Amino acid sequence: MPGPLSGIKVLDFTWALAGPYGVMILADMGAEVWKIETAAQNETRRGNGPYVHGVSTYFFSVNRGKKSVMLDLKAPEAKEVIYSLVRQVDVLTENFSPGTMAKLGFDYETLSKINPALVYASTSGFGHTGPYRSRGAVDAIVQGMGGVMSMTGHEGGPPARAGYSIGDMAGGMYTAIGVLSALVERSKSGQGQHVDVAMLDCQVALMENAIVRYTSTGEVPGPVGLRHPLATPHQALPASDGWVVLANVKDHNWGMFCALIGCDELVTDERFATNVGRTRNYGELEPILFNAFRQKTQAEWQELLSDFCLIGPLNTVDKVVADPQLHARNMLVELPTWTGGSLTVSGTPVKLSRTPGGPQGGASRPGEHTAEILGAAGLDADRISALIASGVAGDAPSK
């Protein structure tokens, strides 16, 4: 079934992770994405491994369902080709360092004159304004500068990077939100606009609670390891065969919780009578809770406590992929590779009742759609053949 963005065309210049992840969201929702790749592109240059079925799993996971067009953007002939493509699309996405697209002749000011309805989305480390605008950044840099690393890890230990690339992926998600917002506004005004998303800004946006806690109290939030900084117990706890994650134990049901875990003595301990006290005295409470929870398995704790509080297993990735709830929600999707075989990727978490969308296919062969897309832009067959023969455009072999 078509997705809600069916009919929307995106000219995608993004690379690495942040930009492609945001555009992947648009593709999953039904947009037709024309992905610009470097002329003579191949799988080795596309992204990191592991390489399975001869394709980069890194690239495959965030470029599914996009049509590949190979162009040498530095070639003089490429400029008119891009201008022709811009006339046909609704959205342009890029995540080069600010100024790069201008050097190529593809900045918003230039392209908006060609297509005034164009929504032009730029994703970068620090945005197109401010003193850091010319600096480069990757995921780890913005996690560090945005405060995320300072709050990740265990109290007294070194800072830690989040376990996945939240710096990149948050930038991608906010880019998708920006594009969708601009498209909605365009439906009223008929005009496009420039969407400027900075990865550092996105980290600060996601740190909202930590920001307001500091600005209102003056206390600098730090790492708290397995637990929540304000609620106790609200954390991971070791069972006899793994870990469980527990939440929603309140002051009014603290006594019942203590009875269920076999720690009646905690009920009369004034240090732990309130959430504030339990959080303040967590160092004394933790070993008691750890000892109690090691007495039963994950399944036994879930059976005992699931009607009383929120509880679930702490899953490793292999268990996540096997989880029946995720399969019921179509969150693990098998997609074909262009070389043969298939790879399983995450599905889309947005579930719509009439126009559900979802992954539209695997990543394309490099240059697979060059002729098709250039033809859609109005170039005739002879012109397309000449561009390919000269190396300005590319059409990679099937294997």
What percent of residues are in strands? Answer: 15-25%
**Unreliable parts:** none
Report the end-to-end length measured between terminal Cα atoms: 30 Å
Number of strands: 14
Shape: elongated
Strands in their spatial order, largest beta sheet? 8-7-6-1-2-5-14
Helix residue percentage: 25-40%
Q: What is the helix tally?
A: 18
Largest sheet, strands/sense/barrel: 7 strands, mixed
What integer value in Å does the Rg equal? 25 Å
How confident overall, as mean pLDDT?
96
Helix vs. strand class: alpha/beta
Task: Indicate the topology.
Blueprint: E1 9-12, H1 18-28, E2 32-38, H2 43-46, E3 51-52, E4 55-56, H3 57-62, E5 67-71, H4 76-86, E6 91-94, H5 100-104, H6 108-114, E7 119-124, H7 139-145, H8 166-189, E8 194-198, H9 199-206, H10 208-217, E9 235-239, E10 242-247, H11 254-260, H12 275-280, H13 282-293, H14 298-305, E11 310-313, H15 317-322, H16 324-328, E12 332-336, E13 342-346, H17 370-376, H18 381-390, E14 393-394
Parallel strand pairs: 1-2, 1-6, 2-5, 6-7, 7-8
Antiparallel strand pairs: 3-4, 5-14, 9-10, 10-11, 12-13
Helix pairs in contact: 1-8, 8-9
